[in-house]
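Entry type: protein chain
Record version: 2
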Amino acid sequence: EVIFASCACEAQVDLILNFETRADEAQGNIWHGYDWTERLGCTQAAAGGAWTCKHPKNERQTITFSDARYRRMKAQIHNDAAGWDAPENAATAESEPADPSKIFGNFTHEELPATLGYKLPIGVGHAGDYNGYTVSYREYMAYDHYRKALTAYGPHTADYMVTRLVRLAAELNGGPELAPEPHDALAQADEARQAGASTALGVASSAAYDAWLAALPNDAGPAEATAEPEDITRFDAAYFSWRGGSNAADNPVVRVERLVDGTWRPYADQSGEVQTMVEFPDGMDGLLNTYRGEEEWIWTAGFEAFDALPAAIGSTPAGEYRFVVDGSIRQDGESVPYHLESQSFEVRPWDGVQVTDLRIDPGAVSFQASSKYPETYQGSPFPYVKVERKNDEVGVPFCTTCSFRPWDSSGEIVSASVTVVRSTGAVEVVPAALVDGRWTAAVELAPGDSAYVEAGAVLDEHGERNPAPSASVTA
């Protein structure tokens, strides 16, 4: 039901969308390519006359061009490309007919029947660059730039890739076998040549690599922790630093473990949640220290705790955590493995929920509460983490450098209570409900009674809470 397709190329968006609409179960929905005219509101003065559109780079201005250029552009996008690779077209493959109706457009209008289609076809973009760029025919013909120069197989490279990926997808789903290409024999011979050349190169360079590796200087040791992590709340980060090997010998594997039912279990790793960096030697002294075996290579790992946006990413549970590191350090002329475990650190709920405007109402005590999360945190050794707003538009990420991981901007308050202290000294905790934008506890205060909101009495959807008791009100 799901298929992933990738060519070893820098796949542009038209290629991805074309594959996904040709390989799905739906019929007649093929993406032909991006058509500016559908966005720019083009109008024609008279039949056969010039066209006027909003300018694509400034839609407050207009651009006018001839009917011939307009029809040529539309043909380059929407015409069926079927037949472009017929042998009789080889001599004119890089040219274009003057008649727009004879232009081979962006893509072949061939799609899988519903019986062979997939519920979820996914085009994997930018998975490699062996074949260079694969721009659509329209982009290839419209511009002279580096993407065109790197689209190695000519104007219909994108359709060549997509059409064969679609046919291969059909074969994998029980359809006809993918037909052989006329040049398959040459391709197989070239594959054998490449395998042989790679093997020979590997054998030839192996001795040189071994000699280089043996000549690496020692690292100042031993491998050990230099700075332990501290307890944090969510919307902050914990750090662990240690002395390890040079980046020629060491590429530490770091994970964060969580203590669950008395057992340390993997929680986060370097696939995104854990970041690492190393302090490089400074200047000539650092270079000399490196080759004298006196340079300390200090590595640092960071781990952010947060409430995720979107929530499906998974927020950081409160609890006890630790860093675990495995790496290599050069000692006595050899690369020696090391294993380090940091001291444990605690992740606690954030305590920044605000309680304001506590007051006595008829038959009730009410207040307002809000849970607006911080944008970033202070003291990060990673220079990446800084407030650098990109966009102030509502709903658009405005600070891509505030943190490594994406977190929510605020939480919805879900529970609250008011603590009442009677004049007799008796204490009551009264649940509050949200009424007309205020959290309201239905309780009557007699003369001498007082009320306040206790620390931790207001919780949001992620378990964040207010940090301290509020001021009291007295009847």
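Comment: The chain has a mean pLDDT of 93.
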